[in-house]
Amino acid sequence: MATDLKTVAQAIDAYAARQQLATPATTALFHNLLSDALAKATTAEADGTYFVKTGDIPAMWLRDATFQVLPYVQLIDEIPDLQPILVGVLRRELRYIQHDPYANAFNQTASGAHWSDDESDIPVSDLVWERKFEIDSLCAPLLLALRLQEQTGAADFFDDEFWQTLGAILTVFETEQHHETASTYYFKREDCPANDTLTHDGRGTPVAETGMIWNGFRPSDNASELGYHVPSNMFAVAMLRALLPLVPSEATPLKTRMQQLITSIEQGIADYAVVTLPTGETGYAYEVDGLGHTKLMDDANVPSLLSLPFIGYTAADNPYYQATRRFILSADNPYYYQGTILKGIGSNHTPAAYVWPISLAMVGLTTPDKPVKQAQLALIAATDNDTAQCHESVSVDDASQYTRDWFSWANMTYCQLALELI
Q1: Domains (ranges, CATH) in the chain?
Q2: Less packed terminus of the chain by CB within 10 Å, N or C?
């Protein structure tokens, strides 16, 4: 029997109402948003799983859904009924991956609804909303599982279904290490912006093999320009590394495959993605192709270079990370914008000079500095245009100019940061 979502949402609201942050504005926004993903975006399904729509789009993105519910993991001790809901979200994600591991977003039912009529190497299923291959979409459910295990000590969801799904993920990763020769995947969309489809007849920009996993689309859902999206490869390493000790003893072949992937990707990062930044320091590229080309930038969407400590790839004091952080939080990053009311990282997914609250919150989530965390919360709260929402992106000069009235991922990343201070 499904846990009653309304009752749990009320418990979350009651918890939020007892909390105080540093300012009235940050407190009020937290009170309004903490139950957002559960009360407004989540639906209980007959099979015991839970569907989480991304906000004002009715589909469930594997990445977005994970980050929408992730703050609730740390509330399980306070509100135990959250645990079966979060496990139910994980179950639905795993089943979506088994249905089509190349898809990034899914319908609640096999309704046949799609973002657009796309062409891919197989017919797009009626259950699939969009079939953009993104490494991070396969990693995000693994992050949810790991956070649940760390918080609760429970491991019952690491069952046959979980390890079978991980095996399917590994097969995709292994195939896409050899995208040019071993993969049949392609993606073509007509009558769209250039960054919403793949070039070269849907195969993407040519790449050389590097040991890393080829990636079709960035976490922004825009096409990867150079094939190897470095933060997503780092996300894969972080997840596989953390899962290794949990692999059952009888699954030795699975563990061997995981170890081989970690070693190969790490070598590829060392060989191709450690570069000299525009600042003159050594740090990480955002994308590479193995043919000598690099993309030096960062995008607001997670996984990003900024988010590396948050996703568990490296410590915040890692010298390469710190050098990269200085670069991406400066005008040297082509997607870093500064105006009269905001400064921070945006995306090619949204207009120039628009900053994403997700990236503003991630600045706080990747530093131990409490005043910085408080400042980032205050900055987000001061630019919500009195909507009590965080939005997707906001103009650096005018808070009344923003994209998306309701973007649950942004709301919940704000709450994630607020909970660190609580």
Answers
A1: 5-421 (1.50.10.10)
A2: N
Return the closest-CA partner of residue 302 out of 110, 137, 415, 174: 137
pLDDT in tens, 62-107: 999 999 999 999 999 999 999 999 999 999 999 999 999 999 999 9
Beta strand 50-52 with 105-106: parallel, antiparallel or unpaired? unpaired
Q: Is pLDDT of 252 > 60?
A: yes
pLDDT at residue 370, as a whole number: 97
Question: Is the distance from CB of 414 to CB of 30 less than 8 angstroms?
Answer: yes
Q: Which of 56, 48, 161, 43 is nearest to 108 (CA)?
A: 43
**Taking CA 191 as the corner, what is the angle to CA 186 and CA 193, rounded to the nearest 5 degrees?**
80
Rounded Cα–Cα distance for residues 404 and 57 (Å): 10
- 316 φ, ψ (degrees, to nearest 5): -65, -25
Own/partner long-range contacts of 153-159 (Cβ < 8 Å, ≥24 apart): 154/83, 155/246, 157/87, 157/90, 157/91, 158/246, 158/248
Rounded distance between C-alpha atoms, residue 63 and residue 218, angstroms: 11
